[in-house]
Amino acid sequence: MRKNSIKNTRINGEVQKELSNIIRNEIKDPRIAPMTSVVSVEVAPDLKTCKAYISVLGDEQAAQDTLQGLRSAEGYIRRQLAHTVNLRNTPEIRFILDQSIEYGVTMTKLIDEVIKNEQREDYGDESSSEA
Asked: For the range 3-6, what are the long-range contacts, defined as Cβ-Cβ under 8 Å and sequence gap of 24 or more?
C-alpha cells in the first residue's frame, strides 16, 4: 500500500476520528487538557506505526502535561483503537505536539499589527498634506 493511496487516506481519517473520541470521552487523566484536539494522523503503510499530531489550547505547561498524560495512556488508547477500528494490525501510536494552529494565530496577529501601522501612516500622511 502506497503512502498516499486512497486506502491509506481513509485509514488515516478513521483513526483520527476514533482517537479524537477516545481522548475526549474515555480518558480521565487530569493532566490532559480539555481543549485537546487531534489535528492529523499519519498511519504507516504497513500499519505498524502511527504519528498523531496533537494540538492543545493553553500555555506551554498544559501542552507538556497533556503530552505526558497521552503517552502514559498509550496502551489503553491502542487497545480501545483495536476494539473500534478493524485493522489487521493496530498501530503503535506516537503523539507529537503540533503547534501549527498556535503559529497561525501568532502570524495573524503580527499581520494585523502591520496593517494597522500602515493605515496609521497613510492617514498621517494625508492629514499633513491637506493642512
From this structure: 3/45, 5/45
Contact indicator for 73, 23 with CB cutoff of 8 Å? no
Asked whether 62 and 56 are in contact (CB, 8 A), the reply is: yes
Query: What distance separates the 2 farthest-apart alpha carbons in the chain?
Result: 77
Angle between helices 60-72 and 74-84 (to 10 degrees): 60
Give 29-74 pLDDT, tens digit per residue.
899 988 888 999 999 988 899 999 999 888 889 889 999 999 999 9
The answer to whether 18 and 24 are in contact (CB under 8 A) is: no
pTM of the model: 0.75
DSSP state of 59: -
3-state helix, strand, coil in the chain (%, to 5): 60, 15, 25
Q: Give the three cell numbers for residue 114.
A: 502591520
User: Do 110 and 61 form a contact (C-beta atoms < 8 A)?
Assistant: no
